[in-house]
Amino acid sequence: MNEIEISVVVPVYNEEGNVKELHQKIVTACEGLHKSYEIIFIDDGSTDRTASECRSLKPLTLIELRKNFGQTAAFDAGFKKSQGKIIITMDGDLQNDPADIPKLLKKMKDGYDVVSGWRYRRKDPLSKKIFSRTADKLRKILLKDKIHDSGCSLKAYDGEALRQVDLFGEMHRFIPALLELDGYNIGEVKVSHHPRIHGVTKYNWRRSVKGFVDMIFIWFWRKYASRPLHFFGGSGILLGMIGTGILIWMAILKIVYGASLSEKIWPLIGVLFMVIGVQFFIFGVLMDVVIKNYYKLHNRMNYTVKEVHQQEKGISLGDNESS
Fold first, then answer.
1. The whole model's pTM is what?
2. Segments forming the whole domain that contains residue 128
């Protein structure tokens, strides 16, 4: 079988009015590339005719989830099914334009492992823009990534790198940040963005909250994935020292100055800080063990190898040959 070069992965949820036109645009864009390709739609538990509309489309691999698990889960199912060297992702609402796929691929030739679309002129309601820009500001503070628009689903990924990522929650928008942690090169290009014509947006404040929580997780993973004991153990030692200092201070007041401590809350605070400090330190040790088991279970380490250059091997001569 010929190796598939391009996989286009699209999650769809209640997009019966968009899937046929979107599929045709993807086919047109991919045919113009003159590369082998596959198109994967993931029906994320649609309650309308989305799945039946997709069944009539060719070429297409349709994955139907049993219920609405969310966009991240749908993307993950598509990634695991894909076979392409390069994976293109996009939304199923026709706001991303498949005609921009060549732009992403051209940028990847400059040595990038991930190329993210930047919706330079967005066609979304004002409320959605405000939420998105606020999230972008927080993302830049916490994650310090190099892209302007993490919420844009139109992206191109190195397939081998992407299939190593396990996705949960609302983490699909942070995939570039996760891959950047592993040393992959992240690029960006300006892409078109169109107003939604059919269907209704699935974006709401709940997704914003979930996305913020996932952002905090990635911030922690970015800084302490390989050394959680440094964070929790260090915090525990600091709290323990503060608690010890408070108790020494109370002891001096009691012994030297004869002060009454019965009505003071500081002794309780000192003991509390010491107990919490011990708990933090123990938690850090346990987290260290869990992280090491995680990497062992996934047959990975906390580093990635770009490539290996092996020069010509030396030849060792025996005593008889060298004499």
1. 0.70
2. 6-224
